[in-house]
Write a structure and sequence with these properties.
Length: 349
Amino acid sequence: MTALWARLCRFNREFRAQHEYSGMKYVAIVVLILLIIGVSAYTATRPSADVQDHQSSVVADGDTGAKPTPLTAALSQEIQAALKATQWPTLEPSMESVITGPSLPPEVTDCGGAQFPDALACTWGPFTAKTHIVLVADSVGLTYAAPLREIALNSGGQIQVHTEAMRGCSFIDDRIATTDKSLLDACPARKNHVIDVINHWNPDVLIISQSYGARTIAGSNQNVTTGLWSKSMLKIAETIRNRVKKFVFLSPPPAGIEISECYPAKAPADCVSQVPKLWRSMAVTELEIAKSLNGLWIDSRQWFCNNGKRCPSFVGSIPTKRDTVFMAPPYGEKIYPAIEESLRAAGVF
């Protein structure tokens, strides 16, 4: 840039000495040269497409290169130990009770139905808190409501969490098919309600957490591609963009094996899940969405998997999931301190 500017100055002196152009012609030539300098400088300093692609590929491959927080590092050691197990340990609670038990603890169960959540019963932490968080999620993301509740209740009054998550209702502009017609019919009104709540509350943080599974558009056989998901998510995000200080995309637990078909007939090593390709693809998509909103994307694999790839069905003495995708409520209680530490390190609050 300095060299180009020096050349322009030299051109200025030589041009005026050798040519007799009108003032307007001279200005036009100088402006053209300045435009060339600007383009050259922008090209030299902007991130290249290769760099941007590398950022996405790192996330998709697993290891983001970020230094783990102390609690996450300790959890990682437990995950590695579980992956080496040759026999099932005594699990507490038992795997059977987790498989057949509720998907959510009682404190948050009623917050995820078709009715609008109770403003008091589904809000944890004082209204005087420094940081106000609203959770928007489908049934899979709803499992984070309990850990977030614990974070708020143990924050010394500094964090408040309110959940607007609803089973079977993806927070995007399009309607997503679900087998429960009552939830499908209630979803549009719920999304409008969420927008009203956000416009009224002006939350410091909006956490969006939704399944990375296959979907179709309601009333059709059209698959929801990553491109359609991105477009639909950004469309609904624009309606609240000026009311949210920070968008945070909290990725769901990676889908895995159906534990009821694996335990106890098979060995622990046979019940280890691999992060699916679709999860990785959706992760990259939501990372890019987060970037476009100047927000954050949080990688959940640090709490469930080793190096973002292999995920055991238990950690320590606690089952991690109750089926293919839903986090076991006891595991959410176990890892909420690590989740909080990770969110703080990422700058969520």
